[in-house]
Specification:
By secondary structure, the protein is α/β, with parallel strands linked by helices. Helices cover about 40% and strands about 10% of the residues.
Length: about 240
Amino acid sequence: MTFLRWADSTREQLRAVLPDALVVLPFGATEQHGPHLATGTDALLAGAVAARATEAAAPLADRPLVLAPCLPFGASDHHLPFGGTLSLSVETATAVLGDLARSVVAGGGRRLLVVNGHGGNRGVCHAAASGASSRYGLAVSVTHYWDLLPADPAVPGHAGRFETSMVLAVDETLVAPRRPRPDPPAGSTVDGVDQHDPKAWLRIDGYTDHPELADAAAGAAWLEQAVSALSARLIELARM
């Protein structure tokens, strides 16, 4: 089937395929990732997983797949105290994602998958998807790419072993030297309850677990698993 990159295509090419296509929109963030990772990590990884999976799925998909440019800004206000962060408020991020969904519909699109790469975007994704679906009649699906991986205590974390390994696999130049660190202080949690506490990030210096244990081989394995799993989901969604 057809595979198009939205930003590389003409309006005529997009107009011809969008009514039958599944549009894939990676959604990341630009925010601090500790003292060792590039601030564009979430956009880099969401974009890489979405692009590789879409290209892999396209020959087997029952409809055209259109890869939209990655949205590189998300809801990251909780990282602002550390610097290095470009954040949208939750309200603005929800509105931006909703406007992009509206634009897909205006161009003739009927199906959208958001591939999220930032934990702070979870609520944004589902609120925007619900709103776009009811307002515009758009079929909107959402996946957080790490949810497609087998359970692992390191996944997803924030700038810890998982993300650092993934970035090493994609572009090792974006990872600075890492020093061993003691175990971050354990946060207080209540089973079955989602908690939002800005002080929790300050207690762990803005990043989780042990990035010094990361390695490119592990990152490549996680990346391959995420791409394979997302590719399979794309093929399923293209049948709907």
